[in-house]
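>> received
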Amino acid sequence: MLAAEPAQAHPVPFSYLDLRLQRDAIDGTLVVHIYDAAHDLNIEPMEKMLEPAVASQHAGALARMLEARFSVTADGRPLTAEWAPGLEVLAERQSVKLSLRFPLAAPPGRVGLTAVMFPYDPQHQTFLNIYDGEALTQAILDSGHDRFEYFAGTAQGAIAVVRRFLPPGITHIVVGPDHLLFLLGLLLLGGTMRHLVVIVSAFTAAHSLTMSLAAMNLVSPPARIIEPAIALSIVYVGADNLLIRGGRDVRAWIAFAFGFIHGFDFAGVLRGLGLPRRALGWSLFSINLGIEVGQLLVVLVVASALAALRARSEQAGRQLAFAGSVAVIAAGAFWFIQRVFFPGGIS
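>> returned
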C-alpha cells in the first residue's frame, strides 16, 4: 500500500448533444467535458479550459475537431454545420458548450446522426436529445452504437418511415428460406389467383399480430421453440398437400394458424432494424406491407408458372405438386432436426 503510485481516472466520459428541429434549420448545442477537450487539444493542465480567455482561444480548433467526428443528415442528404463563434464555459459541470446550426431547405422527415466524439476513449458516450416541438426523443451513442435515426412526427416523417421499412419487408420474405418454402408449399396445389391471394393474406393477418406483439416486447417466446415450430409448419404444409386428395381445401386456415408462429420470427428482423418508438405504428405497417408485397410477388410468379405447366399437361402439374410436397417435407424435417438437436449447425 505504501508503494502504490497515484492514478488519475477519467472524470466524466460523457458528452451531450441537443438538437432542436425547426422548419428552416436544426439548432444544436454540444457540451463536452474539459478532460476530453484538453486531452485531444493537448492542453495541460485541463483546468485551463475553464478560463474564458483560454477556452475562447481554442474554440475554433475544438469546433473543427468535433465537426469531423459527427455528421447529421436530413432525408439522406448531409448537412453542413454553422458553428457560433466562441463557446460557453460551464465551470460547475467542468465542461464547455458550443452552439451550432444546420440550415434546412425544407422540414425533414428523417434525421440521421453518426457520432464518435472522442475515439481515444472506448468508454465515451454521447447522450443525444432531439426536440421536435413538444416531443423529446433520447438516445445514447458510443463506439459500439454510433448511428441513430429519428423520424419526425409529420407527414414527411410518415413517408420517410414507409420508404425506410418497406424494402426490408419485401426482401425478408423473398430471401428468408423457411418462410419462402412455407409459402411455396401453400401454392403447389394451385387454384384461382383470388383464392391464392386469400391464402397469403390470411398468413399476413396472423403474422402481423404476433410480430407487432413481439416488436413491442409484449410477447416474446424463445427462439429455441419458435424455430423448430416453423420447421414443423413446413412439414405440415407438405403433408397436407399429399393427404388432401380432393378433400376440403383448408390452406387458408393453415396459413392463418401457422402465421402466428412465423410472426415471432419476423419480429427478430424488426429488432435488427431498430424500430423508432415515435413512429412505431408506421414502421410496423410498412414492414407488414413490404412482406405482403413480397408474398404477392411470389404468388404471381409461382402461380403463373404452375398454371402454365398445368395448361400444357395436367399430369405434369400433379407430378410437380407431389414431388414439390415431398421436397417441402424433407426440407422441413431437416430444419427441425437441425434446430432441435444441432442448434449450432451441422458441420
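>> The CA atoms of residues 17 and 30 lie 5 Å apart.
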